[in-house]
Design goal:
alpha/beta; 28% helix; disordered C terminus
């Protein structure tokens, strides 16, 4: 059996190891190079993150303890010693989010300092990586930080491909539009900077059109029916339902093929942090909940869907059919859940997704786990700060297929790639 082509990687801003999990998923695929089918093996040599809780989770699942030092204190010698083929990273997104409308954003935000330092080290390295993969929020591509990043890559003779991708276009029922960049090292006899491709692609070559992809239902990602204790633990509290922002909750059912983007603030704020799950209350009646009950609930909660021929990343999704959303009375808005229940054919419950359900939506393997002592709010925060493993695995596979093939001069050293 042919030995796999071995690659080494560094994971920066590693969090709970989404890039590492994606590397394992990507290398499970066969790669076709020069009419030969080969397999890859990626070894993550080192990970870097300043969050000690995230580092504990990383160690538990990847058997590697991330370096907890700030990247601003990492040296060229530290990085060159690894001779890594790949860099994988998700720099802090807060300086580039649309919610950050302050003057302290982009390059001025102190949280970008480590990213700038990393680029400066890259310029000084003797053993620069062959491929660099980056993920950030949509909007990063319009920042001065991104412009400088691309300029530095060009000067170092990296060619780039930029993408806007969301799990929705790959059949995953979660909207998480993100910016991605693949940079690969090229050689030039002149040493001149490489041209910068400013195009933003919304799919991979030969990928099926987003409108033709059948999205899975949320039911495929849910836990088995929760016990009464767990259902109580994850129920949306009455104080949230009756609050002035409770009516803003994004309601989905097991029969939905969509959920809103989950953020690190999930369960702490009602608006804009992710969907909640509305289910028929099986405990309130003798009859078991059938698939028909769930489909009826979906039809009751959600307006008819628009055309599926929408943009892959900025698709228009249906909103819960709540009359209260149009009223200006805060008192009426506080009663939206009562009115919704009165109109339903069976009693309803409303709860947050569990951390394990979110891990499934984010594409983490079944074996992934959190420390038993970690509370659910911290789990939500760590997941919300992570990447979608399935999307990133496709990005890695695309970049590796196109740019990681051993050349004639390097084939003899394939084992050290």
């Amino acid at each position: 059996m042919t030995e796999p082509v071995k690659l080494t990687a560094l994971e920066f801003y590693s969090g709970i190891g989404g890039w590492s999990a994606a590397a394992s998923l990507a290398t499970a695929l066969p790669f076709q190079w020069a009419s030969s089918t080969v397999t890859l093996a990626i070894e993550v040599k080192a990970a870097f993150d300043i969050n000690p809780i995230a580092n504990d989770v990383y160690l538990l699942n990847h058997a590697l303890k991330p370096n907890h030092r700030s990247l601003e204190h990492i040296t060229v010698k530290n990085l060159d010693a690894h001779r890594a083929d790949l860099w994988m990273m998700s720099p802090p997104c807060q300086p580039f989010t649309r919610n950050n409308d302050t003057a302290v954003r982009d390059k001025v935000d102190p949280r970008t300092a480590s990213f700038v330092h990393l680029q400066e080290l890259l310029q000084q390295m003797q053993h620069q990586p062959r491929l660099i993969f980056l993920e950030n929020v949509v909007g990063f591509e319009s920042s001065e930080s991104c412009e400088e990043f691309l300029q530095r890559l060009s000067a170092l003779q990296y060619q780039v491909q930029q993408f806007h991708l969301s799990p929705l276009q790959f059949g995953i029922p979660n909207d998480r539009p993100r910016y991605y960049c693949i940079a690969h090292k090229v050689s030039s006899a002149t040493g001149a900077p490489t041209p910068i491709d400013t195009r933003i692609y919304t799919s991979f070559p030969d990928a099926p059109a987003a409108a033709s992809v059948q999205r899975a239902l949320l039911s495929q990602y849910l836990d088995a029916p929760l016990s009464p204790d767990l259902r109580a633990e994850y129920s949306v509290p009455d104080r949230v339902l009756s609050s002035s922002s409770g009516w803003c909750l994004d309601l989905r059912t097991p029969a939905s093929d969509y959920s809103a983007c989950f953020t690190k603030s999930y369960s702490r704020f009602a608006r804009g942090t992710g969907s909640v799950l509305v289910e028929v209350d099986a405990a309130a009646g003798a009859d078991a909940v059938s698939e028909g009950d769930t489909q009826q609930l979906e039809a009751y909660l959600v307006r008819p869907r628009p055309s599926t021929a929408t943009a892959a990343v900025s698709s228009t999704e249906p909103e819960p059919a709540l009359e209260t959303a149009a009223t200006s009375s805060s008192e009426d808005r506080a009663l939206w859940w009562e009115r919704l229940q009165r109109g339903a054919s069976r009693p309803l419950t409303i709860r947050y997704f569990t951390p394990q359900e979110l891990l499934r939506l984010f594409g983490f393997p079944k074996s992934f786990r959190f420390p038993a002592a970690l509370n659910k709010s911290k789990c939500y925060e760590l997941i919300g700060n992570s990447v979608n493993v399935e999307v990133v695995a496709r990005l890695l596979a695309h970049g590796l297929q196109a740019h990681a093939a051993p050349t004639a001069s390097s084939s003899a050293a394939a084992s050290s790639l």
